[in-house]
């Protein structure tokens, strides 16, 4: 387990870049923590660390955003409106995972998910977050 205190959005992105060094194709990253905690910000860093140059935006309205880099493919999911494991199956989520995409899931609290990494966000103050990363090798 690793606990980080980030004092800016940029520092949270750096934490995402760090995690990118530990993940491999087919891994699931489950985010925990509410609105505005920095999940999408963290994913920007994750994507950058995975060599993805496309701009990462919130999957709130799309449910799943796809990003392709030269070496890695990342799908970024918003599970907020899902109500359980079946809903996630219906989105085709596991087809991505089974074909080697790395999956980052916001609002993973809403679904039953066995994740390779869990990243939990807590608010300390306006600009400060506590980020707890658990998973393989952390
Ligand atoms: N330390 C920090 N880490 C991440 N975001 C921060 C931090 N401090 C302030 N922020 C701000 O909080 C917001 C986080 O938004 P976002 O990443 O979209 O959160 P979420 O996806 O969890 O809803 C951004 O406006 C960002 O600038
Ligand atoms: Mg978000």
Question: Your description of this structure?
Answer:
The protein has 138 residues and is α/β, with parallel strands linked by helices. The protein has a single domain, classed as P-loop containing nucleotide triphosphate hydrolases (Rossmann fold, 3-Layer(aba) Sandwich), CATH 3.40.50. It is 25% helix and 31% strand. It has helices at 9-20, 39-49, 85-90, 93-98; strands at residues 2-6, 28-32, 64-68, 73-78, 102-106, 117-125, 128-135. Strands 1-7-6-2-5-4-3 form a seven-stranded mixed β-sheet. Strand 3 (64-68) and strand 4 (73-78) form a beta hairpin. The protein is globular, with a radius of gyration of 14 Å. The termini are close together. The relative contact order is 0.27. The mean pLDDT is 96. Magnesium ion (MG) is lined by residues 39-40, 58, 106.
Question: What key phrases describe this protein's structure?
Answer:
alpha/beta; single chain; 7 strands; binds magnesium ion; binds adenosine-5'-diphosphate; 138 residues; Rossmann fold; 4 helices
Number of domains: 1
Helical content stands at 25-40%
Strand segment count: 7
Strand arrangement across the biggest beta sheet: 1-7-6-2-5-4-3
Low-pLDDT stretches are none
Can I get a quick summary?
With 138 residues, the chain is of the alpha/beta class. Helix content is 25%, strand content 31%. It has one domain (2-135): Rossmann fold.
SSE diagram, text form:
Elements: E1 2-6, H1 9-20, E2 28-32, H2 39-49, E3 64-68, E4 73-78, H3 85-90, H4 93-98, E5 102-106, E6 117-125, E7 128-135
Parallel strand pairs: 2-5, 2-6, 4-5
Antiparallel strand pairs: 1-7, 3-4, 6-7
The structure holds adenosine-5'-diphosphate (ADP) and magnesium ion.
The site of magnesium ion has 4 residues, from α2.
